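Notebook entry, cofactor series.
This is the third protein in the set we're modelling with a bound small molecule. For this one the ligand is pyridoxal-5'-phosphate. I'm keeping the input format identical across the series so the outputs can be compared line by line later. Sequence and SMILES below, as received.
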Amino acid sequence: MTVLVFLDPAHDDGRIVDASQPQLMATDLGATRGDGLFESLLAVDGAPRKLEAHLSRLAASAAALELTVPDAGAWRRAISTGLREFTAAEPDRSSAVVKLLATRGVEGADQATAWVQVNPVPAATLAQREAGLRVLFLERGYDSTVAQRAPWLLMGAKTLSYAVNMAAVRHAKAHGADDVIFTSSDGKVLEGPTSTVLLAHDRDGQKTLMTPQLESGILAGTSQSALFAAAKEQGWELGYGPLEPHHLHEADAVWLISSIRLLAPVISLDGQELRTSATLTAELTELVDRFV
Ligand SMILES: Cc1ncc(COP(=O)(O)O)c(C=O)c1O
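Returned structure with ligand:
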């Protein structure tokens, strides 16, 4: 079941289209160059979660791409239309994936193409939360300071050019793993292809939650940010890298976190078993549940 709603100045609440029919021009620069941006967010009981954070990251990606996209109000209305349509068609599903997409538009037209797509949460995604992840380190090939030196690489923007990220996940699957953590050429831990890295220590009751530093050219995770805010209120100490692979091997637990899969424990790294903690996972999952 896919619901599609195009953002269209002639339709205030968005224009619902038939997802089984072609809707995009073959000359759209999103299709021909991967030139555009997206967001993926979770909706529960018909309401989008962390919407402000996703809309503000979408605006930051648009600024990095120098792309003019519809305003937040138009996105909100199209999301409401999409979720209403989805709930009417799938009343028994409590959650949905909402994707916001914008491209540079049809060649020569100088107007973004923008739409909202709503789908069920894939069963495989839900299963990974429970089963945990076998992860491989893969090098990304850039050093951890490249984002500041080379803004044209669009590091930290959520662009449509995710072919490399998807290739990394296929590499993991072909080598008996589930997912990947990228490392920089100077040996720093970066992020997953679709997730943020978290690790925790519990030293005599003082719990610390850490994530790689944002300046290393990674995407600012909305889930990591919301979890850090909730953990801080509960007395956790917070840390922002730099992290190296040995820090993950030494941690009391490691997770990948993102908006749809949420918090998934990493159970092995490069085939080596990691420490996991059912207690810490339960405690953090409870904090995640508060913002989903
Ligand atoms: C590269 C990358 N890093 C991190 C994340 C996690 O971000 P969020 O928690 O906002 O979903 C994503 C999400 O898809 C991602 O694509």
